[in-house]
Each structure stands twice: as structure tokens, then as C-alpha cells.
Amino acid sequence: MYIRRIYDRYRATESKQHSPPSYSPYVRYVRPRGVIAIRALVQRVTHASVDVGERRVASIGAGLLVLLGIARDDDAGAADRLAEKIRALRIFEDADGRMNEPLGDREILCVSQFTLYGDTRKGNRPSFVAAAPGEQAQPLYERFCERAGAARGEFGAHMSVALVNDGPVTVLVES
């Protein structure tokens, strides 16, 4: 909000004879209030696994580890769009060594991660009010995993996630 006031003050004092700047460092995209997208933190890995207690729940070889956060306003369409987008991400190296190749026949491991919606703007304790409650998030998590063809962790469980990051390449994707 403070940045927005600085920009508004800048605009108010601007001379009318000059055209406004095409870019201002004080302006950033602000999502309309109440609109929150489903989030995925995507990591390119050589291998990854998820354990619950002493039990191995899932493991993959080369591919993507997706930490998936679902917000209160998310729906099945958002989960479908995000699954398609992640499968199409071109973050693997092609024959020329450039990140230009999609997932292809590599694997995906998806782990539910409500903490991606932790809001730390006020105080030192994160607020998770933007995250969807479990009974709303679980069907969307399952739908995303099915649509993406992903191996999955255990929803709502305390999991140990092990991975070897490749690159490292880590991307935050929102629908």
C-alpha cells in the first residue's frame, strides 16, 4: 500500500506536458483483493521421495517435485489449468543445453503444502487464513495429482521429503 501511495503522489506532481513513464520502479502488479491463485513451488530433481514415519509413501526418479498450496477461492478449473501448465513447463535441458524441453516421460511427485500461503506481513508468526481448509483442499489436491499424473504424498500427514535438486531449478507457478 505504501508503494502505491508513493506512485500516486508521483503521478499527481507530474507535469501535464510530459507523457507518463512507460515503467516506474514504484509500480508492481497487485492481485485484486480476495483473488488468490492456486500455488505450486516446482523443483527440478534428479530424484525425490516422501516418507511418513518409517514408511516410504512415494518416490520418483528424474522429474519435478511439486509443493502444492490451495487457497480458499480455488476450484477444479484452477487445479486443471495448473496441472496442464506444470506438465508443459519447459525447464529441462534440450540437446543444446538450454532450458527448452517439457516434462515428457519424466515423473512428478506432488506434496500438499498449505504453508505456501503463510502471510508474514504482520508480526513474526505466519497467518494461514488464505489457505483452504483440509476438507476443501484435499479433493483439489487429488484432482491436480490425477490430472498431472503425479505420485503423491499423504495429504495432511507430517511428511519427510527428500530430494536432490537438479540445477538447481525452482519456479513458483500460480494459476
Report the sheet-strand fraction.
25-35%
Count of alpha/pi helices: 3
Total discrete domains: 2
CATH fold-level topology of the largest domain:
D-tyrosyl-trna(Tyr) Deacylase, Chain: A
Mean pLDDT value: 85
Task: Sum up the overall morphology in one term.
Answer: globular
Gyration radius (Cα, Å) is 20 Å
Helix content: 10-25%
- Classified by CATH, the class of the largest domain is Alpha Beta
Category from helices, strands and their pairing: alpha/beta
Q: In whole angstroms, how far apart are the ends?
A: 24 Å
**What sequence of helices (H) and strands (E) makes up the elements?**
HEEEHEEEHEE
Major pleated sheet: 6 strands, mixed
| CATH architecture classification of the largest domain | 3-Layer(bba) Sandwich
Question: For the record, what is the CATH homologous superfamily label of the largest domain?
Answer: D-tyrosyl-tRNA(Tyr) deacylase
Overall strand count: 8
Low-confidence residue ranges: 15-31
